[in-house]
Amino acid sequence: MSGIQFLASSKLFIMPDEIEDYYNGGIYELGMCFSVYETDAWWREIVGPVLSMPYIYEVGGIGNYYFFHYLKEYMEVGEVIELYEIPVQHQYEKYIESALQNPEPIVINVGSCTYQNQYGTYQLNPKSWVEELSHRTLLTERGVTTILKY
After folding, report:
1. How many structural domains is the chain composed of?
2. pLDDT tens-digit series, residues 21-47
């Protein structure tokens, strides 16, 4: 069984028309899309202890161009997004326990252009932060990635 990724948001997540229109043009079939879908109640209950934001979605395409485009162009001041990945769905209990017992969180502030993990805090260049962020780790199996804009 494959992995599954989640996005939890401080507000209802609405995909911008620009991104929706792009995928309606056919690129979706190539598996290269940034997509966000309502998750079912069972998964919401499973990942609820790990994620703190109220709106939980299943997500695909984290790290692609339109994911970063959303962060740069559409993320609002005060908005908070959490990302979490379970690499093997049928072993979700092991991954949830690991994330709760030995968390390795990542915090990205797109407003102040900072990236923080267990090794330290790094200042990203305000002019090229999207490019720099695209070369950083966004997801780990042992922690939640929190992306905020302040």
Report:
1. 1
2. 665 544 444 445 788 999 999 999 999
Quote the tokens at residue 44: 């919401």
- Separation CA 142–CA 89 (nearest Å): 14
Q: SS in 3 state form for 84-131?
A: EEECCHHHHHHHHHHHHHCCCCEEEECCCCEEEECCEEEECCCCCHHH
Half-sphere exposure (Cβ direction) of 99: Cα atoms closer than 13 Å: 26
Asked whether the predicted pLDDT for residue 1 surpasses 60, the reply is no
Q: Is the pTM of this model over 0.85?
A: yes
Q: From CA 91, how far away is CA 135, in angstroms rounded?
A: 28
- Residue-range definition of the domain harbouring residue 21: 4-148
